[in-house]
Amino acid sequence: MKRNYPDIHLIYPKTLLWLCCLFSLLLGCSSSADEEAAIPSPAPSKVNLYKVAVIMPLSDASAKEKCERTVAWAQETIYELTVDDENCVQLDVEWYNEDTEDMEQLAMKLAYRGDLYAIIGPYASQNVEIIARECAVSHKPLIAPTASSADLVRLYAQEGFLWSLVETDISQCETLLSIALEEGCRRISLIASDDIYGQTFIDWFAFQANELGVSVDKVLKYTTGQPEAAMREALSTSPEALICVPGKPADVRKMLEQHDKESATRLLFSDNAFQTSVIESCGDLAEEIEGVGTCADPETGFDIAYKVRFGEAPTWEAYLYDAAFLTLMGVYDLQINGGTDLNTSLRKMTISDESTDNQQGAWMPGLLWVKMLGIHLQNYTCLNGASGLLAFDKNVYTNVLHSTYCHWMIYRKNFLVLDYHTTDGSHRTNANLAGWNWKKEKEQEFDSGLKEPEYPALKGRWAVIIAASRGWNNYRHQADALAFYQLLKSRGYDDDHIILIEEDDIAGHPSNFDPGKVYISPDGTDVYEGAVIDYKLSELSPADLTDIFCGKRSDRLPHVVSSGEQDNVLVFWSGHGMQGNLSWGDADNFSHRQAAELFDTLHRQRKYRKMLWLVETCYAGSVAKACEGIPGIMCMTASGEWETSKPDIPYKSVWLSNRFTYSLLSELTTRPEISLRELYYSLFRTTIGSHVQIYNEKNYGSVYRNSMKEYL
């Protein structure tokens, strides 16, 4: 939601008076722009020190200065309020340079140190993910000022140690699309780095574009540091807008070098470009480029205070300030009320309370003393930070509920803020779990009066189940395949009529938290028990599917589908996908062309009565649409042709299931005779972040009259 802030002349007198008082306070108590911001030197006996590690990009001298003075300012604020208090607290900061440290080694070094109360940082999501792996084990508080990857936040939801101070990039992607839409752009492309930061944009761009009524032109990934080729491809079709998600600030110049400023394509950059280093490295190339960045809510007064204190405007510094501020308030609670678990203290002060939601400016000494008094009385209220209200979802405590984004332009080598956007009032039903719960509106329409084709009597049922990935990180694909297998067994299928293809490298994997067993939910049953696996994925190639489906048995392929024109065939496929392909392991694919040839062959050879494919992959629609025009075949997919499907059920740092499949299994277990229309509608509502699609209804039959009873 865009927020238009009034001109200063139109602000009502009380607010103007407040701003004047704030301005006077800042002038009176802050150091000048030419002075170094430093913590006053207290008497050592009066200060209680709590050791923390701060990991930030420090190679650039200017960036290092900004980080150090911002943390020092937060320290000074707390010191001023507690200097005469025997419980005065300060942070004993150890600085680590994110640009040069080996993150794997640093994670092992810091996560298990007993004298370290918290880790603040790193800046980049991909580095936070590395540190988080170890902090998840040690439960060390990890306070991430700017980490915004949706997968990172969801994976560690409910673990209770990760504190992300910004919303995920689901919200930022929405904001970028909204800005493009406001400017009249209707055909938009995306280029994003192929890492955990860029992945959120890849995952959500097409889905949000669909919901907003925007046409997707291209969605492209690139290897961080090498955006040139992908940028040229993105610009080759002249989209009206191109959203650019650089993996690191240095990529911005390489992107701009591929763009003709006379081009009609409008570039919009993500927050990785909202750094002064971009202006310094790009020079004139950066003039008048636009983008989005997380920033302080203007109503907190932080931007004004920062500029008065340091003589320049901030970019993302409010979030680093809040990371230090939140840590200081947490250790102050430990000092006053006892205890050693900083996570518990932070939870007390980050639950939204309507009575405190409007106390903007409460991060400054003038109002902060009320919060500190509340700690003494154990009457906790939600903290108001420099960036805004530090309210976390009370169910998961993983990231703040709302962030403010500024729409910026680089003008005369400075960031000029054009307007502000918030996620309040967006399409989401609520703000928990990083905005995953959108109200979807782009539902398919079906013809209830569609004429039913004539089919022969049903005699038999066959099923093919494929988990098309391998490795521990892909646990969910094999787990979902096994769960689907167990569903079919419970409905009377025998193993002679089920072809199960999966690598079978999960149950016995060294990382398995319950050796020999596989689950799709932490409190569920073992879906591996009794499973009869016909082929390992690595034993087959996509070309073998034609022989398997057509019943061509051989010494190498002893298990095949021996179906005919009176048999229904049900196919479940879970794995990865890319545009026009369903991945087969790590290096092969089942393409749209191969799917079209397979469907045509099966039809000509009369190898089915009806055939239903249920496909859980990214970009599933780009392959499933190959069935269109083939009589008797229908595909239902977890995602459209430009969309990614989403994992679900995080547990022990791995995904146990996918949202589409988990919902599918729930429906088919409780309502095995459900109509295809009801099944579609249920999955459409419960599948998050993609649009469930049905292909080839007109050549299959009415989804209102056809049901899963024919397969189960």
UniProtKB/TrEMBL annotation:
<dbReference type="GO" id="GO:0016020">
    <property type="term" value="C:membrane"/>
</dbReference>
<keyword id="KW-0812">Transmembrane</keyword>
<dbReference type="Pfam" id="PF01650">
    <property type="entry name" value="Peptidase_C13"/>
</dbReference>
<keyword id="KW-1133">Transmembrane helix</keyword>
<dbReference type="InterPro" id="IPR028082">
    <property type="entry name" value="Peripla_BP_I"/>
</dbReference>
<keyword id="KW-0732">Signal</keyword>
<protein>
    <submittedName>
        <fullName>Legumain</fullName>
    </submittedName>
</protein>
<dbReference type="GO" id="GO:0004197">
    <property type="term" value="F:cysteine-type endopeptidase activity"/>
</dbReference>
<dbReference type="Pfam" id="PF01094">
    <property type="entry name" value="ANF_receptor"/>
</dbReference>
<dbReference type="GO" id="GO:0005773">
    <property type="term" value="C:vacuole"/>
</dbReference>
<dbReference type="GO" id="GO:0051603">
    <property type="term" value="P:proteolysis involved in protein catabolic process"/>
</dbReference>
<keyword id="KW-0472">Membrane</keyword>
<dbReference type="InterPro" id="IPR001828">
    <property type="entry name" value="ANF_lig-bd_rcpt"/>
</dbReference>
<dbReference type="InterPro" id="IPR001096">
    <property type="entry name" value="Peptidase_C13"/>
</dbReference>
<feature type="domain" description="Receptor ligand binding region">
    <location>
        <begin position="93"/>
        <end position="266"/>
    </location>
</feature>
<dbReference type="GO" id="GO:0006624">
    <property type="term" value="P:vacuolar protein processing"/>
</dbReference>
<feature type="signal peptide">
    <location>
        <begin position="1"/>
        <end position="33"/>
    </location>
</feature>
